[in-house]
């Protein structure tokens, strides 16, 4: 058939016109709604107000192999959003050299969340605090000339802007912002800055203005938030972090009421208590927030995970970052918290339409009881019945019904009639650690004890700050000097050993004289500084004093924490030689960074064969500075695994060459508490259980790091331990 051009019939024209108009209309609708915005009530996604339930999951704190299951569990637990920080020091370990691989594969993590049908809140920071080494800042940033962190400082702002753009550009290139079809609905700049701003005044105010402008200027297409920032410049939304946030009010009446950190648990420190927060109280806090106009809340943490390697901050933050979260360190649901909050989320979702369409009307139901009713014009209705009494249950009447309210609880009635959930009515179930195998066959190798003449060391007059020497490539720095007793003028007081005093800026110290350990000292999270003092045996002639200083995570919080020192800075004094006191502080000191075993990578398969190990009856027991190694086959099954380090002191653990973190059997502070709870505004610190036990006993061994057979486990022990007490355990019901 000839193709003939014919004039279109009027019918066709009409159809085309209609189609054309529809197209215009659709693209207009699309342009107007494929976006994220906000009003005074809520965040709007695609033009619709939402109640958004969110949880923090930090990608480097679990393995990529664990991510899909954790995300699925979060979804099943009723979350809409995953919130994560971005970890600058993981992504840019050396300036200009980026790492987005493995646990730092941020794009993969976000895409997995997207595939699961959830949204993302990206807290770029790049200051993140997070109990993470140096608050997320790379150590090299400390040594940029003229820098001062988190203030109106040009070098800092330059680096912060560079990294913020790096992340935003990466997200844009991968089309991950919501208007591009991706899952990111919100981004955060800075983090809990208000307290610093308050302390430093004008430069802080200027910095806040700059940070806000810089962030908004990246044009992500989604709103920016600043948490704990009462003066967050428009259009940035200031948000609340805390145990309770129902009384929080945004700084402008056109911003929604958002809670970026619901502290459903707390961080743990070596030597500190194991914090926990009752599921009932978390549910109560969240429900109170919702019934008072809140429409976005995020559990910090929903899954805490593990501070693998030397990523934990503090100092003295434990390797475990479990946080008493609804999904535990190992990726399993923590009951009853997980299910209780899932039930809560369900009830909130059933009430969503009423919650986003109107403000509550509050009425009294008794002396300490009230009701919040959300009744929209369209007829939907949700009610929250609250009993603020911390001791007594009550029966209340509402509408045509009667309801039992336990003490300190709220009932949610998504249809204003039927109780779907009460914050205090919980179902129970727990998990435990089950031993799988003892009887590892251990071998040991003795670490070198510093002597001043060693290679790789340098000598200076006086003592150097530790991190300025190590740049945090290792926890360890040796300080060594010779003490010579001799000549006519020097004598030791008869009958008494000389008294050595060593003051250190932190965080832990071991003292050796002539190769023999004479003791240790350590600081704490609250006071990293420490002083060693003790009598030491010196002989006539040359005595070798060797101080091994170790860091336990660099500070992540506090005013100009980048300037806080670590290591032996003195004074170092010796009394009882001659009749006076010798000040060794300005003597010549040899500095040597790291351990011999670290230099040889004895924790790796290859490196472990470079030294001679001894086993059997020659195994070193309770000896300071000892490396241990063993090989083992992976236990069958897929339950998560941990090593029980109860018989060991302090050091680090490697599995197949990868560090699972620092271990330390530091006891829970005496007079502190085994468990702490946060109930009804009060932070209870009375000892409830487990006082005097190690803060952290179990250390997560990711399944994906294991081969079926012949796995290498290496432990470095600083203080002395008995490896025969180490066992592998499974986390099961
Ligand atoms: C909810 O928001 C409205 C409008 O800002 C306000 O008038 C009302 O007091 C708020 N109610 C509660 C319980 O916070």
How would you portray this structure in words?
- Helix content is about 20%, strand content about 30%.
- The chain contains 14 helices and 41 strands.
- A hairpin with a 7-residue loop joins strand 18 and strand 19 (about 420).
- It starts with 9 loop residues before the first helix and ends with a strand.
- Mean pLDDT is about 90; it is low at about 1-15, about 20-35 and about 670-675.
- The chain binds 2-acetamido-2-deoxy-beta-D-glucopyranose.
- 2-acetamido-2-deoxy-beta-D-glucopyranose binds near residues 40, 292 and 360.
Oligomer: single chain
Number of separate strands: 41
The radius of gyration is 30 Å
Any ligands, ions or cofactors bound here, and which? Answer: 2-acetamido-2-deoxy-beta-D-glucopyranose
State the share of residues found in helices, binned by percent: 10-25%
Nearest-integer average pLDDT: 91
- Report the total helices: 14
Reported for the largest beta sheet, the result is: 8 strands, parallel, barrel
Identify the overall geometry.
globular
Strand content: 25-35%
Low-confidence stretches: 1-16, 18-33, 670-674
Instruction: Please report the distance between the alpha carbons of the first and last residues.
Output: 75 Å
Q: Which class do the helix and strand fractions yield?
A: alpha+beta
